[in-house]
Amino acid sequence: MDTQTEDSSAPHRFGPGLGPIVLGAAGGSLLTLALIVGATHLQDRASAANPPAPGQAPVASAPASPAQAPPAGAIAAIYQKARPAVVEIDVRSARGSGLGTGVVISNDGEILTNAHVVSGARTVQVKLSDGSTLPGQVLGVQQDDDLAIVKAQIPAQKLSVIKMGDSTKLQVGEQVVAIGNPFGLEGSVTQGIVSGLRRDNGNDGGPADAIQIDAAINPGNSGGPLLDMNGNLIGINEALENPTGENVFIGVGFAIPINTAKADLAQLQASGSGSSTARGSQGQPPAVNARPSSPLPRNGSGRTQ
Length: 305
Hints:
The protein is α+β, with helices and mostly antiparallel strands. The chain has a single domain (about 75-295), classed as Thrombin, subunit H, CATH 2.40.10.120. It contains four helices and 13 strands. The chain has helices spanning about 25-50, 75-80, 115-120, 260-270; strands at about 85-95, 95-105, 110-115, 120-125, 135-140, 145-150, 175-180, 190-200, 210-215, 225, 235-240, 255, 295. β5 and β6 form a beta hairpin. It is globular. The termini are far apart.
């Protein structure tokens, strides 16, 4: 076994306390210093053991600063306000399983999302922000604007309804926030600006007055809310543009204006439980319509077909 020889010339290192006292030529000085330090140590211990005398105010420590709420208009404040109303929508269809996002818009548990999220759905599960899961029913589908209503029996203590905004007041350059479940990452938030207005996305099965944004949206964000800086719902995230054909965000996304959705709500809500409607084809089941921002497949194969 290898042994190490201690270098006697190296200084000794000691932990807290006085440690050994080495007496030599300066032993008297060291001893005096040791006695002074020891006496001070004993005095400190005695002070800690004895409380202040009556009438003598104790020395109070500074109170811990309470956690402060984020200021209004901050991303954190917008997220905290809106997140409880944002849900994950899990769908099973003949094509397999996928997921998207939705947002609660009424006290009856009505959830606004994209038509392509629930297209061809056999079963729908709604996952709330607290992780609890409820069965959902597709009430109506508006294919031309790529919108749908899903209803779930959300308990009153868990119900949170988003506040509607006015998309006609949007301006290019205005800041916006998106919340969704990209690639299954629940409750993700991104920020960007309005890059353009009244974009014609109709050739791809969406509205002709879409909001162009640069807030990142990816598969799984479909149907999620686009919010203004007051936390109001101004759009439903729908699609992304990528000329390479890859289903990933490169800086150009589209959302359906909430005022377009408001115009469709009466038709969607009146469709009846479990039924589907499409503009110009009442009573017909919705066609399968894959979108650039289609819900994320559980098998990770890319675009849901």
